[in-house]
Structure formats: C-alpha cells, structure tokens
Amino acid sequence: MRENKMISTWRSIKAITTYQDRKYIYFLGGLSFLVSIIESIGISLVVPFIALVQRPDVIFTNRYFSKFATTFSLDTKQVIVYLGIILIAFYIGRALFNTTYYFLLHKFSSEQKHKITVGLFCHYLRMPYKDFLERNSSVLMKNIDIEAAYATQLILHFLYLFSEFLTILLLYSILIYVNWQITVFLTIALVVQIFFLEKCISPLAKSMGEQRTRNNKVFWRVMKDSFANFKMLKILSRQEKTIQQIENVSKSLSRSNAVGNSIGIIPRNFLETTGIVVVITIMICSVYFYGNATSIITTISIFFLALYRILPALNRILTSYNQILFTYPSLEIIADEFAKKYDDLPDNSIEFTSQIELRNVCFHYASDKPILQDVSFCIPKNSKVAFVGESGSGKTTLIDLIIALYTPNGGQIYIDNEELTPDFYLNWRKKIGYIPQDIYLFDGTLAQNISLCLHSDEARIIQVLHQTNLFEFFASREGLETKVGDGGVKLSGGQKQRVGIARALYNDPEILVLDEATSALDEATEKKIIDEIYNISKNKTIFIVTHRLSTIQNCEFIYEIKNRNVRKFVLSSD
Ligand SMILES: Nc1ncnc2c1ncn2[C@@H]1O[C@H](COP(=O)(O)OP(=O)(O)OP(=O)(O)O)[C@@H](O)[C@H]1O
C-alpha cells in the first residue's frame, strides 16, 4: 500500500513536470546521494579521532595512523593537530555542500511553483468556452494559488524523503559493520515504534489533507460569491450569515492545517526518546554484566553520533511521508487538471468575402436537451442581421456558434466556401467585435479598458469615444486616464455599456455582434448609438440580439428563434 502510494506519487509528479524538470530531480537525487556519503564519512571520521585523542599510543598500533605519521614524519602531537585540521576542513566543506544542496532543492521547488502556477493559468485560458462555463472560476483560482503551492511542497518532501533514506541506509551499513547485535536491537525498537506511530498518524494526515482540500474549495467559492454579490449582500443584510459561513470554513481549515503541519513534530519526540533509551540500556547492561562500559565506549560513541544524524533523518522521513499524504490531494488535482488536454488552436487564415452560411446546424449543452435543430440560413457579407425571440430560446447560443465559441454538434457553418472548423477559429474570432449584455470593466484606466492592453492607440480611442457618445463625459473627467473602478463601479450602467461598445469598435472588426448590448440604455441614447453604429458599419456585418424591436428597423434580415429553429420575422408597420 505504502509502496503503491509512492509509485502513484511519482507518477503524478511525472505528469506535472517536464522531462527537463525530471532530469533535474535525478540530478538532485545524485547530489543527495553525495550528501549521504559525506554524512557517513563525517561520522566515521570523528570516532577514530576521539579514540586517538583519548589514547595517543594508538598511533603506533593502528596501521593507518602509523602510516600517516611515518609518511609525513610527524610526532604524536602533530598527527593529532593535522588530523584535527583535516577533520575541521572536512566539516566546513560538509556544511558548504549541504547548504548548496538545500539551496538548490528550494530553488527547484520555488521554480516548480512558478511553473505550475503559470502553466495552469495558461492551461485554463486554452480551455474551450463551453468547458469553462462548466467550471467555477473560484475553484480555478484556488487551484492556481493554493493547490499549486501544496503540490510543490509535495515534490520537496519527496526529495527530502529520498535523500534522508539514502543517509540512513549508509549510516546503518556502518552501524551493522561496527556492531550488528546492537544495530538489530536498535532497529527492532525503532521499527516497532514507527509502525505504531504511522498507524496513528498517517490516516490522520490523509484525512486532514482531504478535509483541507474540501474546505479550501468552499472558502474560495464563498469569498468569490460574496464579493461578486456585494450590493445584494448589503441590501439583504446577509453579511452576518456570510461571515458565519466563512468563519466556520476558515476555522475548520485552520484546524486541519494545524493538525496536518504539527503531526511532523510527533515522531521526532518519540524517536529521540527511543534512541536514547536504547543506548542508555546498552550502557546499563554493560555495567551490570561486565562491571564497566569502557570496553564498548567507542562503539557507543559511534552509535551516539550515528543516532544524532539518523534520528532527525528518520523523523524527516516520517514527516515527509505524512506531508506527502497531507498534500497528495493537491498533487492529484493539479495532475488531473493537466491531464485534460486543451489543444492550442492553429491560426489558419480564413477569408470572408461573400457570405456566412449555416447548414443544418444542431447544438445542445446536454445531449437530451437540444437547443437548436437543423438551423439553416445564409447571410451576405455586410448585412445587418437581427435575432429575436423569447428569453431562453437560444439567441445567444446561436451567436456563440457563429462567433466560433462553440462547435456545432451537427451540421456545418461555412464562411464563403470554407467550413468553419477549429483550425480557423482563432483567425475567425479576430474578425469579430463582441458586445455582450454584461460588460466587465476592470480596475484600470478608460484607455486600458477600451484597448485591453497597456499601450493603446490614443487617436483611435478618441475616435471610438466620439462614436459612442462618451467623449464629452470623459473629457470633463481625467480623459483617457479616468479610473473606471473595479467592475466599472464608477460609471453608470449606460456608460459601462458604451465603454463596452467602444472596446468592440477599437480594433475596427469586420463583424460586430451586439448581444443585448444596448439594453441598459434609455431609448433615445440607444437609438443615437445604434444609428451611429449603423453609420460607421456600412462595410461591416452586424448581428444584433435584442428584445427591443425599435433597434432593428434598419436590419435587412430579422430571424425569430422559436422551437429550436429560426424563421424569417417580419416587423409590423406600427
Ligand atoms: N452553459 C450552459 N449550459 C447549459 N445550458 C445552457 C447554457 N447556456 C444556456 N443554456 C440554456 O440554453 C437555452 C438557450 O439559452 P440562450 O442564452 O442562448 O437564450 P437566449 O435566447 O439568449 O436568452 P435571453 O434572451 O434570456 O438572453 C436556455 O434554456 C438556457 O438555459
């Protein structure tokens, strides 16, 4: 089970990392092997040195010490001084190497966080519009921020686990070589303890991880909904209820984080106690049976030193293992997200010189509920086309099909004689200026909101401001630098709508789509703007979705959407 978890973790890590990243992980694995060797050498060197300082005559009995002394013609004191200096230099080198290793480890982890965050954001932007509508944007934001951070932590813990495992393996080899009986005794004590610790801790870490993921989802959703419905919250005086909801989720989150993060400390305390108990027991037994512990003092020193390194390493293995369980749901979420393949659309050029034709187009959101069936019509270029119909009849859906946000479930759309397939979507959309009913303005300047970029063409903006009757209003403010507020809160509904129209006109598109775009305006302003749009759109194809028939009197084609199909609609003369 445990092995399976590690294998599935590695598989998920593979799914969210590139080949280059994995090569770097192997490199870090190699470095961690060197770290383990250095740790083992460090411990193996200290004990003989202590023995030498304790009994300098060892120089004459030990062949390595005597060879060192004769090769460099050193006396006893000089041997101790030089070996001491070598040992100090070794430990300084070890500290530098370990620091570099941990720096590289954390650098890699931070870079992974950056890559996953940006990668996920780009991945989501590539998502087809229909799929995006199925998702809750607060969940997407949570994944990009919180889950990406936890998934990165998991990669770090995976590397810790590997590195500490190697260190323990090498130190254990030394201990077995020094005294296998004590090593076996120590191992049994530690293994039994680890077994019981893990029986209690691992399920807790796992359930805390799942609880955290669940709560985070609710937390972000409530946050998003509250800010999006701020006005309604105020009017309905529901702040208290929302605060209560956030408080409950946040409390539960802090509880699972507190437990999840602190279970790492539990193994250390128990393991340290066991290690000390084992060594002291051996010393007591030695004194009890042999009268003193002098004969095994060197062995005990090695065990003390080795445990000094092994116990923190064991603790880190357990901590990392539990952290992997705690953060595994996040890794799974990120891996699942990346597993959804969203193709980069090619930008194949499509010509629009004569007409748009729909041939038996069918569309559904859910297969058992068709929205449009066998819709066919043909629109010559530069026509003005209106779609009318009851609310929910499918006007916006039809428009979304024409502007290539959706792909028909049946039938085809032709632009001139070319079928509008996904290969042309990107190019086709560039020809379109879209004005929705709900314009979203971001917290920036008027110029940024119209051009949707940082460097805008001022002359063009002024032109579209004139066309949308906005110039005078903004001229009396701070001109193009006027701040519109988050969501355009500093503007009236009608002004917001007109900024949306200006935004669509800015790129001088071949096709203009107005989806209830003027519904927030009073009739006089609406007429003025629609007339202006018609005026400047002689060489544009216009699609208008509307409930107000007065706005479509100049349209050459008026279609009513009814019973999942379209039919020509005739405006009554009065
Ligand atoms: N993303 C979606 N998932 C599932 N069903 C949807 C989705 N979007 C719209 N619908 C359904 O499709 C039908 C047509 O919706 P659409 O928005 O196209 O109508 P409409 O004619 O533009 O309505 P309105 O005039 O009220 O804006 C409606 O019954 C609606 O509930």
Query: What is the CATH fold-level name of the largest domain?
Result: ABC transporter transmembrane region fold
Placed side by side, the strands forming the largest sheet appear as: 6-7-8-3-9-10
What is the share of helical residues? 55-70%
> What is the CATH class of the largest domain?
Mainly Alpha
Rg result: 36 Å
Bound molecules: adenosine-5'-triphosphate
**Uncertain residue ranges:** none
* End-to-end CA span: 78 Å
Assembly annotation: single chain
Global mean pLDDT: 86
Q: Which secondary-structure class do the elements indicate?
A: alpha/beta
Tally of separate helices: 19
SSE string, helices as H and strands as E: HHHHHHHHHHHHEEEHEEHEHHHHEHEEE
Q: Quickly give the CATH architecture of the largest domain.
A: Up-down Bundle
Sheet-strand content, in percent, reads: 5-15%
Largest sheet: 6 strands, mixed
Domain module count? 2
Total beta strand runs: 10
GO cellular component, one term: plasma membrane
Transmembrane segments: 24-51, 79-105, 148-172, 178-197, 296-314
InterPro entries: AAA+_ATPase, ABC1_TM_dom, ABC1_TM_sf, ABC_transporter-like_ATP-bd, ABC_transporter-like_CS, P-loop_NTPase, Type_1_exporter
Keywords: ATP-binding, Membrane, Nucleotide-binding, Transmembrane, Transmembrane helix
Describe the structure.
It is a single chain. By secondary structure, the protein is of the alpha/beta class. Strands 6-7-8-3-9-10 form a 6-stranded mixed beta sheet, with helices on both faces. The chain has a 4-stranded antiparallel beta sheet with strand order 2-1-4-5, with helices on one face. It contains 19 helices and 10 strands. The chain is 66% helix and 11% strand. The protein has 2 domains: 5-339, ABC transporter type 1, transmembrane domain (ABC transporter transmembrane region fold), CATH 1.20.1560.10; 355-568, Rossmann fold. The chain is elongated. Adenosine-5'-triphosphate (ATP) is lined by residues 133, 365, 371, 389, 391-397. It is found in: Cell membrane. Keywords: ATP-binding, Membrane, Nucleotide-binding, Transmembrane, Transmembrane helix. Residues 356-574 form the ABC transporter domain. This is Protein glycosylation K.
